[in-house]
Amino acid sequence: MLKRVLTGACALAALSSGMIAAPAYADGHVEAGASQSDGLRAAVMEDMPGLVELYQDLHANPELSFQEHETAAKLAERARALGFEVTEGVGQTGVVAVMRNGEGPTVMLRADMDGLPVIEQTGLPYASTRTAVPATGIETGVMHACGHDTHMAAWIGTAQLLAERKDEWSGTLVMILQPAEETGEGALAMLEDGLFERFPKPDYVLAFHDAAGAPAGFIGYSSGYALANVDSVDVLIPGVGGHGAYPHTTKDPVVIGAHIVTRLQTLVSREVSPLDPAVVTVGSFRAGSKHNIVPDEAHLQITVRSYTDEVRAQLLDGIARIARGEALAAGMPEELLPVVTVQDPYTPSTYNTPEMTAEVMGRLAERFGDRVRETPSVMGGEDFGQFYRADPENVQSLIFWVGGVPMDQYEASERGEVELVSLHSPFWAPDAPVVIATATEALTAATLDLMPKTGG
What we know:
Blueprint: E1 25-26, E2 29-30, H1 40-60, H2 69-81, E3 85-90, E4 94-101, E5 106-112, E6 131-132, E7 140-141, H3 148-164, E8 171-178, H4 186-192, H5 195-198, E9 204-215, E10 219-221, E11 224-227, E12 229-238, E13 242-243, H6 253-271, E14 278-287, E15 293-294, E16 297-306, H7 309-329, E17 339-342, E18 350-352, H8 354-368, E19 372-374, H9 385-389, E20 396-405, H10 407-414, H11 432-450
Parallel strand pairs: 5-8, 5-9, 9-20, 10-19
Antiparallel strand pairs: 1-2, 3-4, 4-8, 6-7, 10-20, 11-18, 12-16, 12-17, 13-15, 14-16
Helix pairs in contact: 1-3, 1-11, 3-11, 6-7, 8-11
């Protein structure tokens, strides 16, 4: 029975509870769960040695957001060798590979490229020893702690199969490698650099993400909202500082901040409908430097999660209103009211269009059997949602999840013997061959289904 959902800061999901037979394995790969007549699974297995080698190279050589120069170059070269028209440097470090194959729909497949500022502790023989300098300016280790290396390996695996099977599909295939998913900036950067104007505009956009809370080889999906709007909000609370022994001569921003934190909890519990998911979490409260000094300012850092734009606006407006109201109640003058800043750009919610989701996941369920399950939506974020939002009237969208937990670890966690690690953990080591094999087959099968062969 699937019970755990362990999440990281990037996109993920776990399979919903229910009795499901575990997938069988052969030499580290997922065995056939349903009878196949198209030879696709066998073709994936033939490609696996090369894909695993690529994965290990990508894992050992991660790059941070908007620094994915080596990664983009090596994968762009592979796409060119397969016959794609390749453009590099889209949205700074993004790659667009186009293959035109007659009349038909345009399908866009996306993989993200960036690693995280995490020092790897997996002990793998191909563990990353890379270092880099992120926006903080402090050198750090770099690791693919969110599994983007499995995404890229499956992206190449899918490109190879679709290039080999051009006689089985018709239309235009657009495969993109997106930078800076971890910062929530990469998808928007590619769109602002003309992704939908300079290249064929997709009718369908498709992607997957590995999951740290489900057994390797399982596939999860949500119809409708799958991931949340993610806003980062900073609140600067001015005060009038002074001696802690004479608080009546001050205006204490710590007390004002404490009232703001407490009052913010009522946004979800008393203002947003119980039927609308919402999260307001104060992750940081910083003020003062000494026991006996009332500081002259305090700082709050807040993460805000929602699905709909209406609830997002309600939460953000409520934060500003509460901050102002609590300061006024404390007697602060207008010129010393809190300053509320919402970081821009934010990560918008990801919406799986029901029609595409039903079609694709229905076909994958026929192929993979009980390994495919509908999952609960999560409040994590993923900037994949930007592609649907760029033209919601004409673009259909789907991102699904592929479990990555090695089966022995998952079974041990079910017995209460170990705790599973999350995405973004320095210890995250997915069962990469199973993730890549499952995702490659699923992405290829879904694309063939969306682009049936037409004409003679």
